[in-house]
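Homework help board

Subject: predicted structure for assignment chain

Our instructor gave us this sequence and asked us to write out the predicted structure in token form, then describe one feature. I got the tokens but I'm not sure how to describe them. Can anyone check?
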Amino acid sequence: MRRISASEIEEAARKLVRATFSNLSVLEERYKLALRLEESELGREALSILLENARIAGERGIPVCQDTGVAVFYVRLGQEVVVEGGGLVEAINRGVARAYSEAYLRKSIVSDPLYDRRNTGDNTPAIIHVEPIPGSELRMGFMPKGAGAENMSRVKMLKPADGLEGLKRFVLEVVERAGANACPPLVIGVGVGGTLDTVGWLAKKALFREWGRRHPDERYARLEEELLEEVNALGIGPQGFGGRLTALDVRIEHAPCHMASLPAAVNLNCHVHRVGWISL
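My token output:
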């Protein structure tokens, strides 16, 4: 068995949050690529502004967007790992609280959705998904998820007869309905299968995938490419000003489901798509 202290996890979470907000080099490279592809004059102007904004934020060590989001964690926890001196979730939340306070990141979490919408003051609790894996590794991914794109995301219980074309229509409907509200160019996570409670996580999990990686199943990889092409044909463009680049990427995750079901979810992320990883 491998023993990891809760204090180590707390410090790793703190470092991960700080690094994800400060390292914007990948984001800048995506904007530069988008500029090479975009043909619309207004779209290119919008992308140029986004690129300059990211450059300044990186140089000054400040958030690239005022919405520093919900702290979403994806933890791959080895089955041979024992956490000592506290709990995993509590340790991550302490790390989040420290990082958001140290870096003066906006705190956006309210304690109750309906009756007591008071700010918790430290951006906790984080949303934490834990996936058991073989071995002794503990690997944490962090994504700050802003409300603008999250609010435009959708879940739908499709009928099995809707099939592939029904899923594609649903994705396009969600993006078209979102328009400029989700701050394109987008990164789009699509979940399909499972149940109502799992399909939303599948869509979110897709957003954690590294840039440039396609689904290992060739059928789903082709579908990702097809959906990206069809989304960009909508013409919404950067920041809604029109153009070719409504989305930078489409990623799909899937799971087995009941023969009478076809759950689907579309989780949109805005142009400020930041994901960081750390291994312990």
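Reply (TA_rk): Your tokens look well-formed. For the description, you could write something like this. The chain has eight helices and ten strands. That's the kind of observation they're looking for.
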